[in-house]
Amino acid sequence: MRTPIIAGNWKMNKTPAETKALIEELKPLVQYAAATVVVCVPAVDIPAAVQAVKGSKIKVGAQNVHYMPSGAFTGELSAGMLKASKVDYVIIGHSERRQYFGETDETVNRRVLAAVEGGLTPIICVGEQKEQREAGYTDALVTYQTTIALTGLTPQQVRKVVIAYEPVWAIGTGLTATDEQANETIGVIRKAIAAKFGRGAANRVRIQYGGSMNPKNVKGLMAQPEIDGGLIGGASLKAEDFAKVVNFDR
Predict the structure, then answer these.
(1) In sequence order, which residues have a C-beta less than 8 Å from that of residue 209 and are 6 or more positions away?
(2) pLDDT in tens, 153-169
């Protein structure tokens, strides 16, 4: 059995004071959740988040990590810096990083290797554009992205990563893949992992759905056998909404 993981991606939202307030409101709402609960906050909010989650089951994640341990990389953060700041998870390769900041499959892989080496759990994002789905390329694309992202890891290391399938056309649009579409594509991702690292590793990897999961659609999505959680955008910015997603099984 894979423990579900619900991670909030706050994107570029919330000040440190707002971070503290949101987490304090969230803590009692998720204290009995069966899922792993993560909040991936802007870098400036990490200290406030780490302080606020104390005494709760909520883990803190970052939204990016550089692949070098140090150097002349203005504006970047290393895995060592994040680990020293008590971060546990880090999102890598989100579609917005790919679209706006030039992230490539190669740099995603390098960041994944650095994160794992640095003791962080990567949440690796893969997914297709609307045109790619309509052209029938979804399976080939997510297989390629997944395989490249995990290159260089051992089967034991792969077991501990998290993959987030995010159909790019469903992010921030209000559109959502059907439960069956999401489950099918996540099954393709799991097959890609099995082909490279073995069925045992593939069966252990938690794969989230990251395309506008919210309180209204979470139960249907989480009822699918391949879906192990969600990478939540807008719904994670309100404690009540995020808690409803986290507590999907109630």
Answers:
(1) 164, 165, 166, 177, 182, 186, 221, 227, 229, 230, 231
(2) 999 999 999 999 999 88
**Residue 232, amino acid:** I
Domain at 5-246, CATH homologous superfamily: Aldolase class I (3.20.20.70)
Annotated catalytic residue 166: yes
- For residue 76, what are the contacts with CB-CB under 8 A and spacing of at least 6? 64, 66
Domain limits, the chain: 5-246
Instruction: Give the pLDDT confidence score for residue 104 in this predicted structure.
Output: 98
Q: Is 66 in the active site?
A: no
Give yes or no for a contact between 228 and 216, defined as CB atoms under 8 angstroms apart: no
- Of 24, 128, 166, 180, the active-site residue reads 166
Among residues 24, 25, 94, 128, the one annotated as catalytic is 94
